[in-house]
From TrEMBL:
Keyword Repeat assigned: no
Record's keyword terms, sorted: Membrane, Transmembrane, Transmembrane helix
Residue ranges of domain HTTM in the record: 20-266
Keyword Membrane listed: yes
InterPro entries per the UniProt record, alphabetical: HTTM_dom
The organism's place on the tree of life at top rank: Bacteria
Name assigned to this protein: HTTM domain-containing protein
Regions crossing the membrane: 21-42, 76-105, 159-177, 216-238, 245-268
Length: 282
């Protein structure tokens, strides 16, 4: 059996085909953010209602109220940099522009709610992480046009570390979700199924409301969901089960959407690139 330190080094700095996989993440992340800006929650409401509802707080509280034209321009900047990032065009510049502009857009929009806004924060962290590596070294217009230099061993290690960071971020996201349920409600939350059952009755999808005539389904669903959240981290770190657990996570989210109407598509659509993709010959 390989020593623990050797396994950690391999996971952090020697993931296979790291540059090609980081390029796949770059392309996927750019498309996800582009879709979020075009189809998601960032509509003109936030540009028009800023003077009434914008209440800045936190580290970026110095961000001023944006008028409708400025808010629209910010959305255009995010969309343009997301598209450029996805295509790998002027990658060094476009990734930085995307990370900064989407951070401001996401922060500004969050200040209208008065509550925590963290359901898409992973996109901010991943966009910032891309700035630290050469995600345009493979599968990019920069590479096609000859605008990139040959990748070094250090570039490969950096790409591997960034992949590990994103994978651990996802795993810890699930882990804290499972732990928080245990801390807040104990084993009752995992064994009763009451919370998902009641939510589905009032706000769930059509299939979910149909299934509410069998409450035991929600007990099983809740218990398996809690176990999945707690087990994702160790299973992800075990190389042999990484792809399988990512596929299970996608099925988990699809099931939540079909039953409860809760969609985290902007998280799990990144899983094929982040956990499952392996270039031929890798």
């Amino acid at each position: 059996m390989r020593p623990l330190s050797s396994r950690a080094d391999r996971f952090l700095f020697a993931q296979e085909a790291s540059l090609a996989r980081l390029a796949a993440i770059r392309a996927s992340l750019g498309l996800v953010i582009l879709m979020m800006v075009v189809l998601g929650p960032f509509d003109r409401f936030f540009g028009e209602m800023g003077p009434l509802l914008y209440a800045p707080r936190g580290l970026l509280a110095f961000t001023p109220v944006l008028d409708p034209e400025t808010y629209w321009s910010l959305r255009v900047l995010v969309a343009a940099s997301a598209l450029s990032t996805s295509l790998g065009l002027a990658t060094r510049v476009s990734t930085v522009a995307l990370a900064l502009s989407f951070l401001v857009l996401n922060y500004y929009t969050a200040q209208f709610t008065g509550i925590s806004w963290n359901y898409d924060t992973h996109l901010n962290f991943f966009a910032i992480a891309l700035c630290a590596g050469r995600s345009g070294a493979r599968g990019s217009l920069d590479d096609l046009l000859g605008w990139t230099r040959p990748a070094s061993a250090r570039d490969v290690q950096q790409a591997s570390f960034l992949l590990a960071f994103m994978q651990l971020y996802v795993a810890l996201l699930y882990f804290q979700a499972g732990v928080s349920k245990l801390v807040a409600s104990g084993l009752v939350w995992l064994t009763s199924g009451v919370t998902p059952y009641r939510f589905t009755i009032t706000s769930g999808a059509e299939l979910g409301r149909y299934l509410t005539q069998w409450p035991w389904i929600f007990q099983v669903f809740t218990a398996l969901g809690g176990l999945f959240e707690l087990a994702f981290l160790p299973l992800m770190l075990w190389r042999r089960s990484c792809r399988a657990v990512a596929l299970a996570a996608m099925a988990f989210h699809l099931g939540m959407y079909l039953v409860m109407g809760i969609s985290f598509w902007h998280l799990w659509v990144l899983y094929p690139a982040l956990f499952m993709y392996r270039p031929r010959g890798a």
